[in-house]
Amino acid sequence: MKHKPHPVTGWRYRLAVASRVLAALLGGYAVAALISAALTVLLLQTGMATRPQAVVWTSLLSFALYAAAAIWVFATRSATRAWTVLCAVAAPCALLLWRWPLGAA
């Protein structure tokens, strides 16, 4: 009788869990930080808030975004999908920050 590895203890499952943990920790942090920075620049450019107000509000929002991203990473169907969506969300924010220099704010 051939031994078949248990799906929960197999190396693929462990790799998927490790990928999700990294996505939640690093990807969630990157997305929260990029969204926070992009919103800060956007608030400053539109004149909707002063610099201290914009930094405080977007910093507070980043904590909620980080928690939501971490929860969503473990709730989504696959680790690949989690990384794809995190990169898709982070890319426009990074592009906005790259094109909008902070000194211009």
From TrEMBL:
It comes from the Bacteria. The keyword Transmembrane applies. The chain crosses the membrane at residues 21-44, 56-75, 82-100. Keywords: Membrane, Transmembrane, Transmembrane helix. This is Iron transporter.
